[in-house]
Amino acid sequence: KNLLANRVKTLSPSATLAITAKAKELKSQGIDVIGLGAGEPDFNTPQNILDAAADSMNKGLTKYTPAGGLPVLKQAIIDKLIRDNNLEYKPNEIIVGIGAKHVLYTLFQVLLNEGDEVIIPIPYWVSYPEQVKLAGGVPVYIEGSSEQNFKITAEQLRNAVTDKTKAVIINSPSNPSGMVYTREELAEIAEVAVEKDLVIVSDEIYEKLLYNGLEHFSIAQLSEEVKKRTIVVNGVAKSHSMTGWRIGYAAGDAEIINAMTDLASHSTSNPTTTSQYATVEAYNGPQDSVEEMRKAFESRLETIYPKLSAIPGFKVLKPQGAFYLLPDVAEAAQKTGFTSVDDFASALLTEANVAVVPGSGFGVPSTIRLSYATSLDLLEEAVKRMDNFVKTKW
Ligand code: PLP
């Protein structure tokens, strides 16, 4: 008999977590590795949030909460959605879960029947395809090539829809490309979603990390008709530097949210109570630290982008949001004697001691992903090492 179920046989571990683990291993051997793999802000969680968490614990608020989240937190999220996005929801249209990642997992579990297709734009966040497959769904990829600024068009979406298509995922600002869809582009995509009766899964976890004066626009803001078919997914991990607290949420159709809540009641129960109280403060308290962190990311980007672009054989589109750069390094890899960018990325780690994530994990195998969620000093040193590595081998 097989020990493991079929559903996990093709499951691949997260490429981003794998590189972080390898970098840590080298570090533990005393090797001075600079890790640009991680997808988390390098700042501490703001003090007011820590204090609110401690307060709640000291008050004895450490018991189970409703599976879908504390009413006071749902209200804080409702207020946030009105304040920031001009979107109105009722408490039964909100679920709080264990990070946006698990919220998405639960969403696909309640949405998909065996064989239902979900359209996933390339480049994609590593977990979308696996989560869709775990729910019995079939990922259907459409490519937002670098010529299209890593974004898909409405026309591509229309051509990919079949009678089995249930949903399309939009992640703007995007991990890994850092690209942001304009309101017009979203309107065209939404038009196809309405015409073809698709659910729009809008992953807005990088909402607060936008540069060059750009403002976030949620696809759900387009119209009541679009909002009805959109599930907005967001959380505090990236905006408030709260990755380890594991709080995310979804807002949308009450029937879907209710099913997700029922599933959570049998799988996770509530997200950690202390983390929920911390998140109430994250949304209801002062937002200065969110903007301070955003500014720090933007100034790193401005410093590092020209230097990275100047490395021979690196083609880099300037990101508009999130904290990743996705250079196309196919030429650099080829000119330095590697048969694939994956091999080039491995050599960057073992020879130049810079950890990056190979783009193959995101569906773009000619690229590598670098996170600039680390200090400017380290970023500059990392770019210098990569530059030397390429120039020496060229
Ligand atoms: N969606 C995208 C695009 C992400 O990059 C991440 C985290 O890396 C998540 C969702 C998950 O965030 P959380 O930490 O809230 O689970």
Which stretches of 5+ consecutive residues score pLDDT under 50?
A: none
Sheet with the most strands: spatial strand order:
2-8-7-6-5-3-4
Share of helix, binned: 40-55%
- Assign an overall shape: globular
The total of beta strands comes to: 12
Task: Characterize the structure shown.
With 394 residues, the chain is of the alpha/beta class. It has 2 domains: 6-44 and 289-393, Alpha-Beta Complex (Aspartate Aminotransferase, domain 1), CATH 3.90.1150; 63-284, 3-Layer(aba) Sandwich (Aspartate Aminotransferase, domain 2), CATH 3.40.640.10. 43% of the residues lie in helices and 13% in strands. The protein is built from 14 helices and 12 strands. A 7-stranded mixed sheet has the order 2-8-7-6-5-3-4, with helices on both faces. Strands 9-12-11 form a 3-stranded antiparallel sheet. A two-stranded parallel ribbon has the order 1-10. Strand 5 (165-171), helix 7 and strand 6 form a beta-alpha-beta unit. Helix 4 (99-111) runs parallel beside helix 5 (127-134) and helix 6 packs parallel to helix 7. The longest helix is centred in the last third of the chain and has 22 residues, at 288-309. Bound molecules: pyridoxal-5'-phosphate. Pyridoxal-5'-phosphate (PLP) binds at residues 39, 99-101, 125, 171, 175, 203, 205, 235, 237, 243, 248. Keywords: Aminotransferase, Pyridoxal phosphate, Transferase. It holds the Pfam family Aminotran_1_2. Residues 32-385 form the Aminotransferase class I/classII large domain. One of its GO terms (biological process) is amino acid metabolic process. Its cofactor is pyridoxal 5'-phosphate.
